[in-house]
Design a protein that fits this description.
Layout: E1 12-14, E2 17-19, E3 25-27, E4 34-35, H1 51-61, H2 67-74, E5 82-86, H3 92-101, E6 104-109, H4 112-121, E7 126-129, E8 142-148, H5 154-160, E9 161-172, H6 178-184, E10 201-216, H7 218-227, H8 236-243, E11 247-261
Parallel strand pairs: 4-7, 5-6, 5-8, 6-7, 8-9
Antiparallel strand pairs: 1-2, 2-3, 9-11, 10-11
Helix pairs in contact: 1-7, 2-3
The chain binds S-adenosylmethionine (SAM) and zinc ion.
């Protein structure tokens, strides 16, 4: 299923190296992932989320507070599906989907730090480093694609998905992290995602999933905060409000937008 990021030829695995017919080769890292970035996004360059962001995401997701979202997504996955977790981050959901459904699941992200953490912990799930602008997979090989709070690339998602394949695109819902926003802003606003039409996909429905959580422990509250875009937009004075919290009570809400590949 993997193709060469340089010439798009099929990649074959020979021992610990992926090679195409033209002899472009990509070694597996010791953690078990392969870096398939090419050109100006070559190996080693720091792009995507950094190590601290990866660690914050892991610390928070491992509390299980977002498992209600992962469980809902599993309802759309069949054990015979070929599943791709697009921009999978540190791999928590990717491995969750594999364990719960028995499907063949792989994940990729542009951040090497994220993928390193993912591959090190989740040995039974395959991870690779790649850019959504150029996904190194053959045409029409994915049954279910999952994209959680990550960038969208209609052209590439459409290319790699089978006809009638399902894309589950998750965005924060209107009331997501309301408790956090109330602390940060005098007048919190509700998230409002534009779902304009895509040519290659039919949007079938949006399923909203909700939960409430009391997040306890200063480090967990801060790791949740660090996962949000607000973290980078908040002044140091306002950050202090969150840093001193022992617990945070909040609504959680995600919209799962379900698209079918035409
Ligand atoms: C908000 S995080 C979500 C990660 C994961 N889906 C989760 O929910 O835990 C967004 C992710 O998108 C990745 N990303 C950003 N630009 C990307 C690109 N061009 N190609 C692939 N991944 C990208 C980041 O590195 C980051 O891991
Ligand atoms: Zn090649």
């Amino acid at each position: 299923m993997l193709i060469c990021p340089v010439c798009s030829g099929e990649l074959l695995k020979i021992e610990n190296t992926y090679k195409c017919e033209k002899n472009h080769s990509f070694d597996m890292a010791k953690e078990g992932y392969v870096n398939l970035l090419s050109g100006r996004h070559k190996a080693g360059e720091l792009i995507g989320d950094n190590r601290d962001m990866a660690k914050a995401r892991r610390l928070f997701l491992e509390t299980g507070c977002y498992d209600f979202l992962a469980e809902s997504i599993c309802e759309y996955i069949d054990k015979n599906d070929n599943v791709l977790d697009i921009s999978c981050g540190e791999g928590y959901y990717t491995d969750f989907f594999r364990r719960k459904t028995g499907a063949s699941v792989s994940g990729f992200d542009i951040s090497k730090e994220m993928i390193k953490l993912a591959a090190k912990k989740y040995k039974e799930t395959f991870f690779f480093v790649a850019n959504i602008a150029r996904i190194p997979l053959m045409d029409e090989c994915v049954d279910k694609a999952i994209q959680i709070c990550a960038p969208f690339s209609e052209k590439e998602f459409a290319r790699i998905m089978k006809k009638d394949g399902i894309l589950l695109s998750v965005v924060p819902g209107k009331r997501h992290l309301w408790g956090l926003k109330e602390l940060l802003y005098d007048t919190p606003y509700e998230n409002n995602e534009d779902v304009s039409g895509y040519e290659s996909f039919i949007k079938t429905e949006t399923v909203t999933v909700r939960d409430k959580a009391v997040i306890t422990g200063k480090d967990i509250v801060m790791s949740l905060f660090a996962m949000t875009p607000y973290y980078y937009k908040t002044s140091d004075a306002d950050k202090k409000k969150i840093e001193n919290l022992d617990s945070l009570e909040t609504e959680l809400e995600f919209d799962i937008r379900i698209f079918r590949r035409k």
